[in-house]
Amino acid sequence: MKEYEKTKLNRVKRGQNRAIYDVEKINTILDAGFLCYVGYIYDGKPITIPMAYARRDDKIYIHGSTANRMLLSILKSEETSITVMHLDGLVLARSGLHHSVNYRSATLFGSLKKIEKDSDKSQILGWIVNQMMPNHWGSLRPMHQKELDRTLVVEFTIETASAKIRDVGVNDEPEDYSLPIWAGVVPIKQVAEYPVSDEKLIEGVSIPEHVLAYYQQNK
To answer: Where are the annotated coiled coils located (predicted)?
Structure first.
């Protein structure tokens, strides 16, 4: 079992019993989603932006316009942090203080570099699309050169990371368990509804099998 070394940067201080440093468990959290939150400093102000991503081994890939101020800022600083979080349930206690949520989250720290080659950029963009919708990239038209020219792709190498998971029920004060107040967990999950075709589809174009398969697996 490989773990990230605990340092001042990635060590979990609050809720240490929920801390995870295992690389594979953290990768499982990353692979379960496709949206991350990227932190950066712009003009002296801290900002966090949601971005689509893909993971390959110890790399996270994100992309945007060549004028994207967040990507330009983190490339200039040569480092950033990235967070991924999944909400799994609302924990409703007998007191407001003990309300909580069940969740899986991972925070990553590392260095960055710009992807230069068009062939690499195209491959990585395919990974990002497929992390959102499996097997989708192959059904799309090839990218135009002008689109690649306007796209900035950044590779983030995970140098250290930690995760936190809460997957338990209510934790009330002992004296509150006798109160006539409902408490429990409301499970939360992200679901897919039936695909809605674009109004401008040409005649004869049907919903692809891989899109229907995604709907069936996530409805």
So the answer is: none
Cα angle: 110, vertex 34, 36; to 5 degrees: 45
Domain boundaries, the chain: 16-188, 191-219
Residue with tokens 């999944």: 86
Collapsing DSSP to helix, strand or coil, 54 comes out as strand
Superfamily in which the 16-188 domain is placed by CATH: Electron Transport, Fmn-binding Protein; Chain A (2.30.110.10)
How far apart (Å, rounded) are the C-alpha atoms in residues 62 and 55?
Answer: 9
| pTM of the predicted structure, to 2 decimals | 0.92
Q: Greatest CA span in the chain, whole angstroms?
A: 68
Alpha carbon of 146 to those of 114, 122, 139, 151: distances in Å?
18, 12, 20, 9
Question: Which residues, other chains included, contact 97 with Cβ-Cβ below 8 Å and sequence gap of 6+?
Answer: none
Distances (CA, A) of 184 to 69, 83, 103: 43, 28, 15
pLDDT per residue as tens digits for the range 54-81: 999 999 999 999 999 999 999 999 999 9
Query: Cβ(111)–Cβ(125) under 8 Å?
Result: no
